[in-house]
Amino acid sequence: MEILLIERDSKGFAMAQENDNQLGMMTYSIASEQLIIIDHTDVEAAYKGKDVGKKMLYKIVEMAREKKKRIIPLCPFAAKMFQKLDDIKDVLH
């Protein structure tokens, strides 16, 4: 599985794909130089429960750390993961 991170203007997304098939997407908005807002997560039904959402979140967290950004998780899935996972709370706004 490959996780791509793409940004355009004030929006961005992490996309999980495998063999040219899209498995899921997590979208975010760039609110400022220091802040991004994760607003939606979607995983194809056949891949739910296989950590696709978590892997996309980790890719966005990795980018946030590199760019010294903080994250507001408006998406219910991302919010739940931030509550559950201690190793990503350093980028939580």
TrEMBL record:
Residues 5-93 form the N-acetyltransferase domain. Pfam families: Acetyltransf_CG (PF14542). PROSITE patterns: GNAT_YJDJ. SUPFAM superfamilies: Acyl-CoA N-acyltransferases (Nat) (SSF55729). It comes from Flavobacterium geliluteum. This is N-acetyltransferase. It comes from the Bacteria.
